[in-house]
Each structure stands twice: as C-alpha cells, then as structure tokens.
Write a structure and sequence with these properties.
Layout: H1 2-5, H2 23-33, H3 38-45, H4 65-84, H5 91-98, H6 100-109, H7 114-138, H8 142-169, E1 173-175, E2 178-181, H9 192-210, H10 220-230, H11 232-237, H12 241-257, H13 260-280, H14 285-293, H15 304-322, H16 333-340, E3 349-353, E4 356-361, H17 369-405, H18 411-427, H19 438-453
Helix pairs in contact: 3-4, 3-8, 4-7, 5-7, 6-7, 6-17, 7-19, 8-9, 9-10, 9-12, 9-18, 12-13, 12-18, 15-16, 15-17, 17-18, 17-19, 18-19
Length: about 475
C-alpha cells in the first residue's frame, strides 16, 4: 500500500554543458585519447629542439635527442607488446620490413672490419626495420595516423619559421658569401635537416588540404592550405636542390591523386603564389633562379658541389664493380673513396654561419642512398632494401586506389602516406641517411607501412 501511494522520485536536474569547452580542455581530451602514440610523435616533435650534431655525415655515430626518442619508441613498443601479448606483425609486414636485414647482416659480416661496420648495422636496423615496425604496431587507427602526421606539420612550421627569420636577418648558414641559407636549428653542418622537415610538413599539409579527414572541423582545410603555402618560403630559402625536386614530384603526385578537378584548382593556386612571391615581391628570385639553373649544369661549368657529387657517384659505382655481390661493407665508403674517386673531387665542403665558425667538412658519402647501399651492400643489399621500398609504395598506392573508389574513411591517410613515400624515394637520389632528421625517415616508413600492410584487424579504413 505504501509503495502505491509513494510519490515517484523526480530526476535530478542536470546542469547544461557549456556552449563551448575551453580550447585547452579540448586539446587535453584529444591528447588523452592519443597518449599510446605519443612515443611515435616524440621523435618528430623533439627535432624542434636545437642540437649540436657534429659533421652530419651519413656514417656518423653521433646521437641526437631524436635518436634517443626513437630508441625509446622501439623499447616502449616491445614492452607494450610483451605485457599485453598484443598482435604481432602480419606475415606480409614481417617479410617486407624484415627482408632488408639480410643485406645489412651480409654487408656487416663480409666487411673488412666487421666491428667497425657494426654501428652501421645498428643504424640501418633502427631506421628501416625497428622503428617502422614499432610504428605499425602502435598505430591503432586512422586517428593515430593523423595525430603523428600533424606532428610533422608542427615541426615544419617551427623549423621553417626559424629558417625564414635566418634568411631575413642574415643569420643563417653561409651561401654565396652571405649568411642567408635557412637551416633552422640544425646548423650549417646539416643543411638538409630543415629542408627535410619542411618538405615533409608541406606534403602532409597539402594532402590534408586537398582531402580533409571525414568529419573534420571546417577550419582544417584552410589551415592546412595556409600551412602548405607558408612552407614554400623556408623550402625555397634552404637552397636545397634535391629537396626542391623531391617536393615538386611528391606534391604533384598528391594533387593528381586527389582528383583531376582538385588538381587543376590546386595547380592554379600554386602558380599564383609563386608569381606573387617571386615575381611580385622578388623574394630571393635571383639566387633561387641561379640555384635552379645549377641543377642542369653538369658538363657546362658546374659548381664544385655538383662536381663533387657526380665524382662520388662514380666512386660508389667503382666500389660496387669491385665487390658486386656484397659491396665493401657497411661504413666502408669513406675508406675506399679515394681509391675510386677522380682528381676532380675536393677535400671537403666549406660550412660557416648560423652561429658556427668556419669548418671544412669531409665528404664521407656519395649523397645518393641507392649508390651508398650499392657500394656498401652490393646487389644483395640494394635488392632487399629497394625491393622493400617498392613493395611499400605499391601496396600503399593500391590501398589508396581502393579507398578512393569505396570512399574509404581513411583515404586522406593514404594520400599523405603515398606522398611521403614518394618524397623519400626521390630525395634518396640526392641524399642519404645522416644527421638528426634521419629519425624522421624511420617514422615515414612506419606510416606508409601501416597504411600499406596493416592487417584486417587494424584496417586503415577504420578511423
């Protein structure tokens, strides 16, 4: 009877949520959701910290803060996988990422001094096997991918902004008698560092501007477009011919893969920006034009840097001819260089500016990743490593095509991954691993491997 006459309990009044949560709270919530992949983004973001890295040679054993973060990434992944007994790599991923180890091991064992070659083995293992595998295992969905890709844009804006300031104030690295070369925080001994970070950020920003993530806020597209345009200046002021070529190829590919109609509008915008910056304001037009012209000056009065590069390329080919199967061994290029180089090779390159005194930097690599691998690892190494890269690029392009046809939720990730991979493979024609920015190379290969090789249980389409 009492139960029938008892008044029903009234629901407690709920306080209405605020109309808009503070920006710090929103960012905190997003960061909390992505904390498992913070070790993946850490090597990228830590490259914004100024470093002193020695001579930046490809075979250097100097260790940067980004290298330490990469080592922690691998260790963190291993502990996480063991404690959680989580999924291993798929068979395809294990083969594609693991086959280069054969070339590294053979080149180390057959080197004239295997002990001296051991640091090179560890470096190659870190950049092309362990770090990419850790990235594949730690990325859970497309949101994680976008979080790490966004870190590339943040780094590029920081380094690029510093580089523009160096050019404007004459506090950069020495170039043509003036301290105007934009090198960011990397210094004159690693002139490719800032150009690499800026180029990666430009490729990511271009992909997000052309194909924003599904459900993304309206500000994402204009912000990404503004970032891509802003990064044109520091890339130009880096005076890095190899980075220019790789960026043009990668950005054009991203634009074309985004769709024909989008491609026409994007290319028109790029031409307009170039005309305004270079033609209208004359931003570095003479120096940039001269630098572009030097790309084709191979036989007709080339500058000394071009002469040195082609001389070292010929020396690398000569080493391979002597040891076609296994090469001269990891870290063997400097020891065999003089025996295969012509008299046209200079003793080194001059570096100065950006807060550093004049230094004469030795030429310890051919500045071509393919020829470096061919000379030090022979046909065994180049077949395994280049085959792995080709499989990643082909697999990534195939998945992107399928995602676009099915309007896949993560097609933007595929566009960014393929663009980054194209940039890296083209840039390797004019550069090799070395310096702090090498930590980014492992992350890039991890992103493309996640997109190209992730199994069904972690399919890229599941955002």
């Amino acid at each position: 009877m009492t139960a029938l006459t008892q008044a029903p309990a009234l629901p407690r009044p709920r306080t209405a949520p605020p109309a808009a949560a503070p920006l710090a709270v929103c960012l905190g919530r997003r960061l909390a959701r992505r904390w498992p992949v913070l070790p993946v983004a850490a090597p990228v973001l830590l490259l914004a910290v100024p470093v002193e890295y020695g001579n930046g040679a490809s075979t250097s054993t100097n260790i940067s803060v980004a290298d330490v973060a990469s080592a922690f990434l691998v260790l963190y992944c291993a502990v996480r996988m063991l404690r959680g007994r989580s999924r291993p790599l798929s068979p395809a991923a294990a083969v594609v990422l693991g086959v280069p180890v054969v070339g590294f091991a053979v080149a180390t064992v057959t080197a004239a001094d295997p002990v001296a070659a051991l640091p090179g083995f560890v470096r190659y293992l870190q950049v092309f096997v362990l770090v990419p595998a850790a990235v594949v295992l730690l990325l859970r969905d497309a949101g994680d991918f976008r979080f790490v890709a966004g870190a590339f844009v943040v780094l590029a804006l920081v380094q690029g902004g510093f580089g523009v300031w160096q050019y404007a104030t004459g506090s950069g690295a020495s170039y043509m008698g003036s301290d105007i070369r934009a090198v960011g925080t990397f210094g004159p001994t690693d002139i490719m560092g800032m150009a690499t970070t800026v180029a990666f950020g430009m490729v990511v920003a271009t992909g997000l501007a052309l194909l924003p993530p599904p459900g993304a806020p309206r500000w994402v597209r204009p912000a990404a477009l503004a970032a891509a345009v802003a990064l044109v200046l520091p890339l130009a002021f880096s005076f890095s011919r190899g980075s220019w070529i790789a960026t043009v190829v990668a950005v054009l590919a991203v634009v074309l893969l985004a769709g024909l109609r989008t491609a026409v509008r994007a290319l028109a915008a790029v031409v307009a920006v170039a005309v305004v910056l270079v033609g209208g304001f004359g931003v570095g037009s003479q120096l940039i034009t001269e630098r572009l012209g030097s790309i084709t000056q191979v036989t007709a009065a080339p500058d000394q840097s071009v002469t040195d590069r082609y001389t070292m390329w010929a020396a690398a080919v000569g080493m391979w001819r002597d040891e076609p199967a296994t090469g001269v061994g990891l870290k063997g290029f400097p020891a065999y260089r003089d025996g295969h180089a012509s008299l046209g090779l200079s003793s080194g390159s001059d570096t100065a500016g950006a807060g550093h005194a004049y230094q004469r930097q030795p030429l310890l690599s051919p500045h071509n990743m393919y020829l470096l691998v061919l000379s030090e690892q022979g046909l065994t190494g180049i077949t395994a490593l280049a085959g792995s890269w080709a499989a990643l690029l082909a697999g990534g392009a195939r998945r992107l095509y399928r995602a676009r046809r099915r309007r896949g939720a993560a097609a933007d990730c595929g566009l960014v991954a393929v663009g980054l991979m194209l940039w890296q493979t083209v840039d390797f024609l004019y550069a090799d691993i070395g310096g702090p920015a090498t930590a980014l190379t492992g992350i890039v290969f991890g992103l493309i491997a996640w997109w190209a090789l992730a199994g069904r249980q972690e399919a890229p389409g599941a955002a």
